[in-house]
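User: Quick sanity check before I run a bigger batch. Here is a single chain. Can you write out its predicted 3D structure?
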Amino acid sequence: MTTPLIVKLVLVSLLVFIIFNLGRALFIMVKGQHQQSMSQYLGRRVLFSVVVIVVLLVALGLGYIQPNTRPY
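Assistant: Done. Predicted structure follows.
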């Protein structure tokens, strides 16, 4: 496996985990369960969003991924 593919797989898996945590927080909010804290899942979502941004910046800086220079 090449490094750009690994970086992309890590980013996609982090994004899926972010969506999962957002869904869990929504489920707790709608269901009204007070056993678990909704902020725990929302906090994880924010944390992993920051991790995604850092991974993107590092991968761009090291040249593992290339930005699209043409907007169309």
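The helical segments are 3-31, 38-62.

User: Great, the batch can go ahead then.
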